[in-house]
Amino acid sequence: MANPVDVCHITNMLCTELEIEYFKKKNGLKDFFIIGRIGRANDAKFDLITLDGFAQFAKNNNHVRFLLVGATPNILEYARHIQILEKLIIVENTSDLKQLLKYYQAMDVFLAASRIGESFGLVIAEAMAAAIPVVTVSIPHKDNAQIELVDNELTGLVVERNINDIANALLYLYHNEHVRKDFGKAAKKKIWKDYRAETIVSSFEQLIYRHFNMDIFSDHESLIQSFSDQMLLEYTRRCDDLWHTDRR
After folding, report:
1. Pseudo-torsion of CA 205, 121, 194, 135, nearest 10°?
2. How far apart are the C-alpha atoms of 203 and 171, rounded to whole Å?
3. CB neighbour list of residue 238: distance below 8 Å, 6 or more residues apart
4. What is the pTM of this model?
């Protein structure tokens, strides 16, 4: 069972196009293609290969920027080392959802790579709820819930942990606006269908009712599934279903 996402609240708090345009202008992001990451200021939650992939993608492109929420001294030092510091837009973490949604909505692509992986990936789900396409990295020997959130080539791209695949995925989405829009629409639809808080809560309620042999009255279909070989096969399929440049 997934974590609940307050999709209704997020949807009601989304910024208008004018608000996003003003935010971009105020922060020097106007007319740039924006890759972004939001997360805790914690080195374990950020894989430096994120910056390597961006650096390779941005090497010959002055019209791209990286919006980074949750920077640490190590992350900034590494960005300085690979000479991309001037292409980073550093903003502080905040608990203000409206402000966070401005960050998400300012992005053209959300790039998610964590050193320790994701047990769920709330920031990925929030980006998807805001209709932002996601590029994420599969790390099958660690927590890897990100590949269950992101459906490869449907709601975003799932790649191996290497610089070339990350850079090429960003380049592919940079050149294909219609793909980004299709991914964003599908991402929002998936979060609404499978992760909405009301549906998750109802699923747990139904589980409790069944445990006590009580009658169940709910407008929501339960999302709880019994553990099965089919679930293992589906996860294995997702581990194998990775985007490569030659799959375009």
Report:
1. 180
2. 40
3. 138, 147, 148, 152, 158
4. 0.90
The string of pLDDT tens digits covering residues 25-42 is 998 899 999 999 999 999
pLDDT above 90: percentage of residues in the chain? 75
DSSP per-residue codes, 189-245: HHHHHHSBHHHHHHHHHHHHHHHTT-----SS--------HHHHHHHHHHHH----G
82 and 51 Cβ atoms separated by less than 8 Å = yes
Give pLDDT, residue 16. 96
8 Å CB contact between 102 and 21: no
* HSE-CB for 21 with a 13 A CA cutoff: 3
Helix (H) / strand (E) containing 67: strand 64-69
Residue 30: CB partners within 8 Å, gap ≥ 6?
Answer: 21, 24
**136 DSSP β-pair partners:** 112, 158
Residue with tokens 């932002």: 132
| Phi/psi of residue 72, nearest 5 degrees | -120, 165
Bridge partner residues of 159 (DSSP): 137
